[in-house]
Each structure stands twice: as structure tokens, then as C-alpha cells.
Amino acid sequence: MISFLLWPFVVSLILTGIHTYLGIHVIRRGVIFVDLALAQMAALGATLAVLFGHDLHDPAAYWASLGMTFIGAAFFSLSRSRKERVPQEAIIGITYAVSAAAAIIVLDRAPGGAEHIRALLVGDILTVTPAQVMKTALLYSAVGLFHWILRQPFLLVSFHPEEAIHKGYRLRLWDFLFYMTFGIVVTSSVSLAGVLLVFAYLIVPAVISILFAETIAQRLWIGWGLGIAASLLGIAASVTFDLPTGASIVCAFGLLLALSVGTRGAYGRFLNEDDR
What we know:
Helix content: over 70%
Radius of gyration: 19 Å
Structural class: mainly alpha
Shape: globular
Number of strands: 0
Oligomer: single chain
Number of helices: 12
Distance between the termini: 54 Å
């Protein structure tokens, strides 16, 4: 049993590592649903490949997904402006809805469409192979190294965009680089874990870490710890009660978020009472 669960757990650690970092950027930028939108565009690319006779896990499906996420990255970087008449989150939400509808239409014309939709939503993390895990680890390490080398401009553009403009940074270029690398990660993650689980790994650890910490380093350590805890809890519940693994991990994230919000609220009231 331990050997059966080893690789799913290892891939959950890899997902936690890169998604927590990217999630902190996404929340600070105020584009919470960009992950869902890019993930859905990746899913649309995969469904187009299925329509032309390829399997969801074929290289053709991967490259089609990656191409769609690059289109999304360019679109989102161009849609950001300093004087927004329409919030960028609205553009992102519309992109998600249209991509989801288009994927449903495409899969309606493909054999086994309902099963493909389920696979794209919740994935099947239990079936990952050692080769997939190693490939994902190398890819995410390269993306992580790229962000570490360019961490100062990336952090400045995400956390202090006005200062970045004052220093002469081209926001659209840095936005495109961010969304492009983000799209590479999302494309690979969706093929392993599905849209919902990827969203949970991106947003929930980052949200909880922001509740309890101020610095980037503190938030990363808290987010990584929560991601590991949710993965262990979800996988254990899946094995014990014979539940879908991806959905179980998403619910575990939801439980930890509820506990964290409750703890933060009680701690806040304790501090307020202590100040009286």
C-alpha cells in the first residue's frame, strides 16, 4: 500500500511547492480566477486534441494545451491597464466561462465525452507514474529557478506595480512572462490532477498563509506545510473510505481553510479583548 501511494504523495509535494509560490503572486495581483481560466484553456486544448483522435495523455494533447495557455497568457497581459474601466477579474471570468462552454461543445462531439470532462475536472492523481513525476519535477524546477533568478522584478510587479512603472519596468512584458510560466505549470498540473485540484493547490495554501504571516518566506513555509497536510489528509480519506482522491484532497483543503479562518477569527477577538 505504501509503495502504491508513494508517487501520488510525491507529486502532491511537487504541486504544493510551485503552486503555493505562484498562488501568493496571484492573490496579490487580485486575479484569483486566472488559474481556473488558464486551466480551462489548457483543458480546451486537450479536448481539441481528443476530437482529432488523440488520447488526453498524448504529447499532442499536451502541446495543444500549452498553445492555448500561451494564447491566454498573451490575452491577460494585454488586458491589464493602469486605468481599468472593466476589472481584469471580469475578463478572466468571461474567459473561463467561454473556454468551459467550448470544451463541453467539443467533447459532446467526441466519443466518451462525459468521462473526459470528469478526468479534466478532478484528474486521477493515484495513477501517476514515476516517469511523469520526474518529468514534472524537472519542469517545475526549471520554472522555479527562472522565478528565483528574476524574483525581484516579479515581486515588484506583483506587489508594487506603481513602483515598477516608476523604475521603468514594462508591466505587460513582465505580466506575459509571469502568465507564460504560470501557464506551463498549469498545463502540466491539469494533466496530472485536474482543474479543481490545481485550483485548490494554488489558492488555499496561499490564502491561509496570508492570514497568519506578513513576509514572503513565512507565507511560503506556512503554505507548504498546509499543502502537505491537506495532501496527506485527502489521500488517507480516499484510501480509507474508497473516495475519489482528487475530490478528497480538495475537500481536505476546504476543511483546513475553515479551521484556519475560525482560528484566525478567535485569535483576532482574543487580541481585541486583550487591548480593552
